[in-house]
Amino acid sequence: MGQEQYIEFAIEEEYYAIHIQDIHEIIKIQDITQIPNVTSYVEGVINLRGKIVPVISLRKFFNLEERDHSRTTRIIVVHHLEDTVGIIVDRVNKVTMFSDIQSPPERIGGIDGNYFVGIGLTNGGLVAILKLNEILLREQE
Amino acid sequence: MLSEYKEVFLEELEEQLQLMDDVILQLEQEGETESVVQSLFRAAHTLKGSSAAMGYEEMKQLTHEMEHLLDQVRSKELSITGLLIDLLFQSLDCLKELKKDIIRDDASVTDISGCVRDLQAFAEPPKEWVHHEIEDLTKPELSLDTTLKIREAEEHGFIVSWITVLISPECFIKGARLYMIYTNLCEWGDVLYSVPDIEGMEEQEDSMFEIRFLYAGTQSSQELHDLVAALSEVIGVKVESLSTEMAVSINKENEKQERIVNEDHTHKAKSKAQSIRVSVERLDHLMNLVGELVIDHTRIHQVERSQRGRFTDDSVNDLSQISDHLSRIISELQESVMKARMLPIEQLFNRFPRMIRDLTRDLGKDIELIIGGKETELDRTLIEEIADPLIHLIRNAVDHGIELPEKREMSGKPRKGTLSIRAAHEDNQVVIYVEDNGAGIDPDKMRDSALSKGIISPEEAVLLNDREAIHLIFRPGFSTASRVSDVSGRGVGMDIVRSHIEKINGLIDIETGLGQGTCFKIRLPLTLAIIIGLLVKLNDQTFIIPMSNIAEIVRITHDDIETVRGQQVILLRNQIIPIVWLHDHFNMPRRGQKKSHIQLVIVGSAEKRLALAVDELIGNQEIVIKSLGPYVGKVDSVAGSTILGDGKVALIVEVSGIINQR
Question: HPt domain spans which residues (chain B) (predicted)?
């Protein structure tokens, strides 16, 4: 367990991680084409080398205050089922490993604990590991 | 193992069934001609062979009976009567049911016994030759050696006969088949001689389907005949016993084999060899790749233009030359791939004669069907998509459009109604017309009907002009049929027809004259994957409106806008068209409105037009439709997206979505 690698990233000063196996690539922020009349956290779509990839804002998803994209803003492109989805984060820190992962509490800083696999422990502190299946689950109506 | 061949078998089955459908109809309309009966017989025979090989016992049995019956027609023992046509159609329907069973892998759901019984009852007892009409061929010249052999055999008490065997032209390895017949004969008796020589057969095996054996054995003519006829792929046998006298008679002309070959048939065989079956999936993949090329090319073009502004050296010229060349190649490639996906609409149209026949019968109408433009080609997915709406339109025309013969006579029209179905290419689109010379649509009746069904309010009814009233037919929940017949009015209304057509980027329009008839006009794009789109700007974002949806583009000033009951409208050639600001529809702020002019893109079909207000027109361009993917799913009023020359993603407006919300 401890040997598995994660990508650690941040929104504000909170640290999150995604399992490295789920990640396709990490790209700089791009031109995003907005899609009208869709769920607010879906920012739009980007052209990823000829493929149309939807991107979501994790900030909006977690109901955090909106902020303009900066030099460090990144899109983490992940595989989800058969689909590819980009996730906008404030900055990407590093590849990391956790010495221990604890099951998530009911709420983490005001966010539903169901969105997380667990809390990873590192030397730098606590990192919330995202449960992509839960976050990328969309009512398909 | 059989399942590997099942697909091939089903394809063949489909072809043959369609052929039979056509031919039986032809028989009914034009009466009996030798070639028509012949081709019907051949179809039945082919099916019998292949179904037997696949082990579909019922189908084999049924086709066998059909074949038997047809043979008697061919040999003039039976003549074509209405009863016989009905029986043939009935058998054909039975075959279609069997086909469905085979597709479902659900053996013997369909009961064929009734059909088989009818066929058998119709057929007369078999005569001397079961299968194929073989002409009284002249006997080949016999050598002295052979004549001696015949004498010898007769002295031993054998009966010597000429056996003429015809094998199916569909047979793959004719030489081998003939050789097997030869070996069979050798088992039963002695083959003294054969024309052509069985030994030299390989060389000419492809052109062979007839052979004559001089046979000596103990069997009677009838026995021999039955034995040989039972061999596979034999379609004709003739046995003539021979006296030595006859054998000695000489006749030189013996090359008549070609006679039985239908020219048409050899032609078909040739064209078959030049085409291959390719799965649609592969073609789709090719089309996708071409789409990528189109996108990349627009990008190269854009880069070239921006470079031209900055540099003036030769490398830029080179780039533009390459880009131009690329553009030629890509458009040619695109056209070829598109063509590969195209099929003549004939495929679909061929279903209609039979349908009309059955419908007119059931409804007691007299209708002449005119089909035109069968050769018009369009994308195969479109052909599939357009089938249901067309069938519905035709049913409507026959059921509600064209009046009963008596009624037509009373109103001074010929008893026979006309229904014409035509397809044609018109400016990069396919247009299909379904036109009848029936009663037409009465706008007053439409108003009353819509009113009583609560589709429109009394105030609305007053406001509707005749044209609008007629277009009420496309409203959901509308059906003018006062009685629900088996033919139309099964809950699928014209609204479904319209939405189906709009789904494939098509438009439907209607023209009607009371007492003169109705014409439905369907416009379809040539292909679905690559479309021509109009690029428009809303604020800073580019959107694309499919060109096929656009009727016209007008530029107006704010003063031209009028307001009717709170709705902004524009009066265009006496037609009131509501204005929709695309910004509002997409919940975007309306910026850039200080401009004195407003660009309106008029979209939709004649009955329901909308003027979409946009900020700016950029131009039209070929675009490749890309889906937004399963994560985003279906977005309201967005048909998909595409990648523009600058690499940005632009959304494609789904016009029918906007119209339907009005």
Answer: 1-102
